[in-house]
Amino acid sequence: MPTPMNRRQFWHYLAGGTISSLSLGYLLPARSRKPDLEDLCSRFPQNSRCQDYLPGVQALDEKGNPLQPDLLLSAQTSGVPIPVKGLSRLPVTYLIVTDKHEIANYGINPTCTHLGCTVNWKAEQNRFICPCHGSQYDPQGRVVHGPAKRSLPLITVVVKQHQIRLVDQKPALDPR
Question: FRET label pair with 41: which of 34, 35, 96, 171, CA 20 to 30 Å apart?
Answer without folding.
Answer: 96
